[in-house]
Amino acid sequence: MSTEERSVGSATGVAEAGSATGPAESTDVRASVALDGLGSLRRSHSCGHVGTDLVDQEVVVIGWVHRRRDHGGVVFADLRDRTGLVQVVFRPDENAEAHARAESLRSEFVIAARGVVKRRSDDTINPNLPTGEIEVVAAELRILNTAVPPPFPIEDETGVDESIRLRHRIHDLRRAPLQRNLERRHILAQAFRRKLDELGFLEIETPILAKATPEGARDFLVPSRLNPGEFYALPQSPQLMKQLLMMSGFERYFQVSRAFRDENQRADRQFEFTQIDLEMSFVGEDDVLEVLEELTCFVAKAVDIQLPRPFPRLTHADCMARYGIDRPDTRIQLELVELTDLFRESEFRAFRAAVDAGGIVKCLPIADADALSRGDIDRLETLAKKELGARGLAWIRVNADGTWQSPIVKFLSDAEKEAISERCAVAPGSLLFFQADAADRANAILARLRVDLGERLGRTDGRAWDPLFVVDFPVFERADDGSLTYMHMPFVAPREEDLPLLDENPEAVRATHYDVVLNGTELGSGSLRNHRSDIQRRVLEVLGYSKDEMESQFGFLLNALDSGAPPHGGFAFGYDRVVMILCGADSLRDVVAFPKTQRGQDLLMDSPTPVSAAQLEELSIQVLAQEGEE
Question: Does the pLDDT of residue 16 top 60, yes or no?
Answer without folding.
Answer: no
